[in-house]
User: What shape does this take?
Amino acid sequence: MLAILKKEINSFFASPIGYLVIAIFLVLNGLFLWVFKGEFNILDYGFADLSAFFLLAPWILIFLIPAVTMRSFSDEKKQGTLELLLTKPISHIKIILGKYFGAFILIIITLLPTLLYVYTIYKLGTPEGNLDIGSTLGSYFGLLFLVAAYTAIGIFASSLSDNQIVAFIIAVFICFLFYIGFEGIADFTSSRFIEQLAMSTHFKSMSRGVLDTRDILYFLSITVFFLMLTKTNISKETK
Assistant: This one.
């Protein structure tokens, strides 16, 4: 598994993909949070608060993570190397986890520079340090779990097709459905059960600074569910 993980990380940074993902995420967030006038602009908001970043980041990641994961299995299928990979003395789940953690680590590296936002808001607050640390940490934890779920969905979508664009579109659709789609359906049907299926509901709950085990179990369940679906798809390739 570690060999596959290292191969994935190396492949990201051996090509422009890794650098491009980091640059796009930071530039888009930087422009919306500090340059463009609007509801996301922190300086116009008037409060020492990072809620605008945590409101914006999930939407950018809905497109960015599928762009990272779309090649995971699609590229292997297209080049005909997937069958060779599956014949190696390593379990299918370890292959999947190697690719999964490779993409996950890249996104974590992408998020690390945003800690500078925390320091900046901390310094800009009046008085200095006037920042809700609990809520900020909770939001970052929520974002990590959201990234974990998005990445699992992206890996699953990549296992469905040998076309990277198709894999990208499928991943974006499923991420969108789980993040906000179920919440919209719940508002229409007034169903509490459907509302609990929405990632945004659990992410907002964690953003309040309260780490509820129900929210953590929800994200872990979604992650494991899509990784198991990926294993089922990959197993079919050997039959």
User: Anything to note?
Assistant: The two ends are 22 Å apart (CA to CA). The chain has a mean pLDDT of 85. The first helix runs from residue 2 to 14. DSSP finds 13 helices and no strands in the chain.
